[in-house]
Design brief:
The protein contains 13 helices and 2 strands; from the N terminus they run H-H-E-E-H-H-H-H-H-H-H-H-H-H-H. Helix 1 packs across helix 6.
Amino acid sequence: MKRLLSIEFQKIWKNKASKVLLLTYFILLSFIALIASIKFNIGSLEIHIADQGIFNFPYIWHFNTYIAALFKIFLAVVIVSMMANEYTYGTLKQNLIDGLSKKEFILSKFLVVVSFAMATTLFIFIMSLILGYSFSSYNELSIVFSDLEYLLAFFIKLIGFFSFCLFIGILVKRSAFALGFILVWAFGEKILHGIIGRFVFHDFDYAYKFIKFLPLESMSNLVKEPFSRLSAIKAIETTIGGANEAKDYSVHFSEIVIVLVWTFIFILTSYFIVKKRDL
């Protein structure tokens, strides 16, 4: 495994565009800390974002993983470009000539996917601890290390999404078309939800019970939006007469299983494509 990872990271690090995207990705993740410095005025009232509880333990695990997931497209570009370069520069064929099996080739790509997800999760874990201990009103260990399931869900979400990008990269072979395909797929799931909800069940909530099994929607569902958990948002909803219907923000084992099943499907299908394709 060490040999396979070494081969892949040499390819990535020698590509200037991939190197820039990787550095940009982790720099942008660190910008989450800048949210703490945001202040704005509403009339005579000054609001400091950090004082609204977004960096309180254990809420910070939910908030930071949700925000960090928004930047995953940068690594998606790296993964798709990584596959496109294999075909463009003939490195895939050369690796096979040098003795690398097709199974090892797919395994090496999947190891990169896991490495990216692991590095990002560790980065968010460390940054969240620093921000939490700097701004949180609660520093008891029992509180600090509760709700860590959001980190697990975030890790699984990244592995699933990057495996999906790997599959598309292998299927399409050209990075620009592959990225376009990913966007079309994402819009397609939303459109399908609208069609089923409007014309089949005449109920969008009921239709979502089926749509949530689709790959991108299932990944999105792992870490749900955290903003409506804030007391300030709840107070505004109450003031304007919004619904106080309880929302489930927790991470469910069934949701993790769905994403893991899709991950297995994407990696296995990628292997069969490479195995059957004339290289």
